[in-house]
Fold these 2 entries.
Entry 1:
Amino acid sequence: MPVPPTAAAPAEPDLGHHGDAEATPGLRDLAVNVRHAPMPDWLADPITAALGELAAYPDPAPARAAVGHRHGRPPDEVLLTAGAAEGFVLIAHALRDARHPVVVHPQFTEPEAALRAAGHRVDRVLLDPADGFRLDPARVPADADLVMVGNPTNPTSVLHPAETLAALARPGRVLVVDEAFADTTVAPGVEGEPQSLAARRDLPGLVVVRSLTKTWGLAGLRIGYLLGDAGLLARFAAVQPLWAVSTPALAAATACATPVAVAAERAIAADLAADREHLVARLATLPGVRVAGRPASAFVLIHRPGAAALRERLREHGWAVRRGDTFPGLGPDWLRIAVRDRATTDAFIDTLARILEA
């Protein structure tokens, strides 16, 4: 029989809880960080065409070459996966010999969940909300031989400087940087994705995890990829099931690596930044609501005492937001809110304000 939690042994966060569990049909969804928009023809057409090729086994070679070209890497430095989540599972199983895995939190919980499911004992580095959830490389134990960190980090939306992350790389360590939301970030005067390590080939043990789910609304298709040293990726490929990525998903990966796609992605990220600023500004007008850090992605993390009850009231009024207590390092007074268009944000803030005034 499970032992009930005590003051000495607090309840562990539910690492298997994700935003899709919040998005009950009938509620307006601010819990899931997937963009909802019509699929462009340059993406829809190859996916549709791929449905006529399902009798043949998937061939990942063209997609690997396309993704590698996008990031300035040869094809053998790309491993395509059934979503970023599969990448974490492959890493956890291939690196069973890791002696001291460390996960930097708060962040997406699947990396730690995958490690624990593979039998690893995991240490956590919890970033400080009072410091804006900024990462200090010195806080990561020197003997950690597997380090996992998000950038920008889900759920905090904080974008760590590339050189801060690069300082974590060293011989004998695998550094896994989850860049599932890197394509949502922009910075004034910066071309491409600010602070991304996707093109860095000089850092020992670096593995970058990417996803095509968020910007292009492909959560149901399951497509992501790993970038890193060819020898290291070969270890991950050795534990991957045969033909893990479907032909339509490979077609999507190829299409999303084209210059047309990258240009569209940059334009979407710029629009997202403006919508995020609007959300942050509206949240600042609410009593007792504090936005965490400096949001840089498709979601915003807020703190307010009594947020767990507030989330339930929002559900009663037709809105779904993401609870924060399932993320290590947070608790019931935190909520994550997806960035949407300004009209949706205004309707949400108006509802939230009425609840807080009641």
Entry 2:
Amino acid sequence: MGQNLRLLWLQSGGCGGCTQSLLCHERPLFAELAGAGIEFLWHPGLSPASGPEALQILEDAASGAAPFDILCIEGAMLRGPAGSGRFHLLGGSGKPMTDWVARLAARARWVLAVGSCTAYGGLSAATPGNPLEACGLQYEGNGKGGLLGREFRSGAGLPVINIAGCPTHPGWIVDTLETLAQGGLVEDELDELGRPRLYADQLVHHGCSRNEFYEFKASAEKPSDLGCLMENLGCKGTQAHADCNTRPWNGAGSCLKGGYPCIACTEPEFENPGHPFLETPKVAGIPIGLPTDMPKAWFVALAALSKSATPHRVKENALADHPRVLPVQKKTGLK
């Protein structure tokens, strides 16, 4: 293997949750990345260098004196007030974080937006009127633009790679970094919102433990119920692009397995859906958030048929917090 890829990580307007998620990676994180040929040049929470020493590392990287390969940014870009960026100065430098990010992005072979805040603006942009002037690296909500502009390309010729999620799954980060180390990504491996297709070509619905209830439209009515959370409790798993249920968090969990509906945190503007997260908006009793690739008339017809055929076991268990009716023991005649 050739020279290691050098990774520089900065945190901007956010909670640091994506770093915390990364540290929960179920396999030995640093050994795995080192084995793939990736080393941390600097990370604000994981590197020993701080103060003037850390600022010198950043200045050398931004000036080109210390070449690096991967720039990971976590948190939204805070451009306020009045476009000055002075709502967020990098400690000790007196310079806006937005200036640092722009300089560093111009030097990087690949630029990664880690988390939905960095990708699309996220929670920092959700306040009415967006007084922070928060945005993503290359998006403002659903629209291209952001801090770096719609035409930005990194040294490798790619737009910003949006590892969206709130927080993002540690496996998505590690797999993307390993892909870069093993030869890089091509633009066709990103979806139309810049997300790595290695996870964004899936839906949260895939592998959901509540899928039997979904198939029979046996819906939960309160959060503790076992039934499907789409009809009444706001679940957007049939619309959200992620593999949370086929690639469980820490090998075991997901929001849905924990009893909480999917809020589509990998999608732009998920943080401001226009309704409470635990409610499903409806028109004439029909949820407006139907599966993305199913015509409404088909869904209504299939839902009515499914409900008429719901087994007693499924119907009873959907409104309970534990299975009340167990599957019947029945000889099938199969050998």
